[in-house]
Fold this sequence. Notes:
By secondary structure, this protein is of the alpha/beta class. The protein contains 17 helices and 15 strands. The protein has a seven-stranded parallel sheet with strand order 10-9-8-7-11-12-13, sandwiched between helices.
Amino acid sequence: MSSTRGKVNAQVAPRGTLELLSQLDVAALTRSARRDDLLETFRRCALAVLNTGNESDDAKAIFDAHQDFTVEVARRTRGLKLIVRNAPASAFVAGRMVEGIREHLFAVLRDIVYTATEFADLLDDPEAPSEVITDAVFQILKQARIMDPSLRPNLVVCWGGHSIERFEYDYTKEVGYHLGLRGLDICTGCGPGAMKGPMKGAVVGHTKQRISGGRYLGLSEPGIIAAEPPNPMVSHLVVLPDIEKRLEAFVRLGHAIVVFPGGVGTAEEILYVLGILTDPANDGLELPLVFTGPKESAAYFTELDRFLRTALGDDVKRFYKIIVGDAEAAGRYVAQAVRRVRSQRRQDGDAFYFNWLLQVPRAHQLPFEVNHDSVRRLRLSRDLPRHELISDLRRAFSAIVTGNVKDNGIRMIEEHGPFELAADGELISALEGLLAQFVAQGRMKLKGEYKPCYRVVPAA
Length: 460
């Protein structure tokens, strides 16, 4: 290993699921990883992982500051190794790469190469059947070895913002602690803020209960991992090929969903799951959804609830539970809800580790290519059938996420200006009100002044 001006050159051996490989496995991995498109995707994701702990959500700034970073996948007699040059020095201690970062680095390699080699046709096929997409999600999770048929349902998906106040972060830890005390594991988007806090709290709860082998799963995708590098608490990292498959992985793996205060990414996740819960095909299926935060965040949930009722109708309230200012009550409610899920899975004969019976609307599975034209074509009107409105609202929030934190989105906004979201009627004021609250409460950006990447305009 060598170091120059805060950057490091090193050779790194595998850690995690790539430690045991045959010579044919190694040949396939190294051959695939040399493809120019895959190598660039891997380089960008690897750089994000190596920046773990650096508090920035500006993907463009990260890439611009490390243009000289390179990573090469090389064969060796007993497997493979990575040769990194000009890597951030913060990823190394006493001349060795931090173990957690090394595990995450090879998890990224595993998932990017596996997805590109096994599902290349699927990723390019807009007509792919729904069941084929679901099977691809299952196979990626299976390859990552994070599903365990021997475990009873105990996985709680936690969503929330990467840019939150300290009192909100402390509350996420407290809820995580009460979940951990009740033997529940945590799955998040793997980044900072509300994605890190529940894991830290659960570790303490598990330790007090002498629970070993607790799971702290992080699910990401190549476009967002630079803005949300895996936090150090993540024990198992999986990189899905796009946001839609990442979201499907959350709802297939999880036995309950807890939502903390967040911004547009959190709103996208909420709309995704509500699109599933409101689908008549899932009537009666248990997928508990809880919104919770400290009492200081009560206004956040009031505005969120108002927006959802305005956009989707008052009856949408029956699909979620709001608990404000009581972390223990949230933990207790979720534990009870997970027991109901366990009973239903047993009664229906569904797997504990992957929710096969859940019907995910096809519109939720198809990747949305964000650009100015596609965003302008979104239909945000209460005249639409509810499932269509939910789908386009989710895509609208996904576009804002892209413009806020993804490198390609930031560059699109710099070149062509803000995205235009065309809404009508009550939706204009409801959408503007929710987004204005996110901006005022600092939920759009970790540091610095936020310049909106969008504007809401009346529909033609």
